[in-house]
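Shipment paperwork, digital attachment
Item: protein structure file
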Amino acid sequence: MTMGGIGTTTLANVVYQRLSYSHFEGCCFLWNVREEYTKHGPNHLREKLLSELLNDEAILKMDSPLVASPFILGRLRRKKVLIILDDVDSSIQLEALVQGYDWLAPSSRIIVTTRNVQVIKKVANRFYKVEGLSHNESLELFHLHAFGKNSSIMGYDQLLLERVARYANGNPLVLKVLGSFLHSKSKEEWEIALNKLKIMPNQEIQDVLRISYEGLDDQGIKSTFLDIACIFDQSFTRDQAENMLEAGDSFVKLGISVLMDRPLIENGEIKNELWMHDLIQQMGRTIVHDEHREPGNRNRLYDAKDICHGTVTIECISLNMSTIDRDVKVCHAAFSKMHNLRILKIYICGRWHDIKFKLYLPEGLDSYLSDKLNYFQWDLYPLKSLPSHFTLENLVELILRGSHLKKLWNHEVQVYFI
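Attachment content:
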């Protein structure tokens, strides 16, 4: 129950190698159950499992090994066995492979690796979440792949190594891939590669991470994941996410729980705090970016230069003004075409006085903002009033920190500058 590339298969294999021949009378390691089950079906995996546990190739010729015969179960009852099922993706797969194995001899062990905790919640005696590497461990693993076991890192800026460690955030796969890619390259090439990763993530890494997303069998839950990936740059509370997405609808509550089980979202250090790994967020934003070449035909926008591409397709806009590198001018009709806009979040991380560039509305806003808006935040809102046809029917939160607002439509309001 960890994110892709974190090393569960590697750890399971180490356990298998250490224990299989010295502690058990029969052993089987089924690799990549998710993919093999899809390609070959349960019978193929069941045959392999039984034949290896009993060291009997005749089982491979059985017509229906899915349900073991009393004779086979009798043989299993007399053997202490070790079974490792790697990357199990659903309860159906697990049940097909371990059905009847409650008859195993005492002290037998079944170890399951999965990205979805729901697979094992009802049947497992113990859970273990594989954590990422520490900072020092990350640097050590990266050094091994980038420089070799006995090589020196003389001539390479320590800040570059720190950037790699921060980007990987303890994920061994990322450290290995980047280390191998940057091996024998110059310091200047490192700079170029690391800057490029911010815009265009490594495809090999993304493919592994994306498996957890593709395993979500509900489009609504996928949508909740993409919303969160585009909306939040830092940790957030569950209440914030639920209020912002569909105004706390119960389906969103379920979706967040599923995402935590995968885990595409994780618990933070503070109670009720949640966070998304930077690489998982980057994967989600890449999925959104790849929806269409034209930003206006994507459901979500998170880049300042895309805001002017307003169409009815857009449901969510989230812009961190701390990240823009130039002034952005938005035409007055940019938002009037976005009839399905649910979330409009223009915000600042950090100190407002450090903001060098701004979002301008030289012609003001058109008279219309989507009546589907349930969340509206605009830090340093530049106008003195809201659009005349902006309704509060579905609005849950209105946040206008440090705004120039003097009127809500035709009504005077007291404005506090935070």
